[in-house]
Write a structure and sequence with these properties.
The chain is of the alpha/beta class and about 300 residues long. The protein has helices at about 10-25, 35-45, 55-60, 70-85, 100-115, 140-155, 170, 175-185, 200-210, 230-235, 245-265, 280-285, 285-295; strands at about 30-35, 50, 90-95, 120, 160-165, 190-195, 215-220, 240-245. An eight-stranded parallel barrel has the order 1-2-3-4-5-6-7-8, surrounded by seven helices. The protein is globular and about 55 Å long.
Length: about 300
């Protein structure tokens, strides 16, 4: 794994890696992360990219629901921390871009500097809601294509991959979602994300109607989209599989069990076999590499 104290991959190298993955025949699996510890686990597990989930960021870092309360600066600062903790390309959920085209330009530039490998923008209004909630409000397709053009102008030629998401399925139906998706691709988005299709037939229609465009599937356990595996997603025409909150929810479940044990038993000794061992924890965060570099300077 890459450690921040040692020379690592540049942002341009990470973006090139992500673009190469998107151009391959494989389904790119992007587990969601909310912090550097989770990102380390994703890298250790052998995944080639990770997804900074907006919902997970709101939940885990701020204790808030996913209803558009996190700011542009808060996201950019967190991306910078993550980019410094890993060599993986990080896909960043930037919600609506935090405003109109000018705000989107500033968002893309901030995330570019922070080290994002990809930036995802969606076509909800500024007070957005999780794609698997109800009662979404959308901007027009024309307003979204203006945002896409602004994002492309802001990033330059080798900037972050641009992902455009539409939440139109839950508001206007599948046909309008596909129409918008095609318009967003025509405007220059490199990857298209039709959020929350209902059923395998709808997913098949998305893959068929948008064939040739790299497509995102967002698997939300308990959400509106069928919980398919990567092989099935590939057969349906999807190129990126987000498991946006699987890791966070798994860690929360384990943490709840751990705290219930401590509350009931008043000790942790009998549960030690359920903890990450001490030495593995230090290895995960690169203590050996930091100690070796420290030794070069006479410690």
């Amino acid at each position: 794994m890459t450690h921040a104290i040692l020379p690592g991959k540049t942002a341009a190298e990470r973006r090139a890696e992500l673009r190469a993955l998107l151009a391959s025949d494989q389904v790119v699996v992007a587990p969601g992360v909310t912090d550097a510890a989770g990102l380390r686990l994703v890298e250790e597990a052998g995944f080639e990219t990770a997804y900074l989930t907006g919902a997970g960021l709101a939940n885990a870092q701020f204790g808030l629901p996913d209803i558009g309360l996190i700011s542009q600066r808060e996201v950019a600062d967190h991306v910078q921390r993550l980019a410094g903790a890993t060599g993986l390309p990080v896909i960043v959920d930037a919600d609506t871009g935090y405003g109109g085209p000018l705000a989107v330009m500033r968002t893309v530039r901030m995330l570019d500097v922070a080290g994002a490998a990809a930036v995802q923008l969606e076509d909800q209004v500024l007070g957005k809601r999780c794609g698997h909630f109800d009662d979404h409000r959308l901007i027009t397709a024309e307003e979204m294509t203006a945002k896409i053009r602004a994002a492309l102008d802001a990033r330059g030629g080798d900037g972050p991959v641009l992902i455009a998401r539409t939440d139109a399925r839950g508001v206007h139906g599948l046909d309008e979602a596909i129409r918008r998706a095609r318009a967003y691709a025509d405007a220059g988005a490199e990857v298209i994300f039709v959020e929350a299709p209902r059923g395998v037939d709808e997913m098949r229609a998305i893959g068929r109607e948008l064939a040739g465009i790299p497509l995102v599937a967002n698997i939300v356990e308990g959400g509106k989209t069928p919980e398919l595996g990567t092989a099935e997603l590939g057969e349906l025409g999807f190129r990126v599989a987000l498991f946006a909150n699987y890791l966070m929810r798994s860690m929360m479940h384990a943490g709840r069990e751990a705290l219930a044990h401590l509350r009931a038993q008043g000790e942790t000794r009998t549960r030690a076999d359920r903890l990450l061992p001490w030495a593995e924890r230090q290895s995960l965060f690169g203590l050996g590499a930091y100690s070796e570099v420290d030794g070069r300077y006479g410690r």
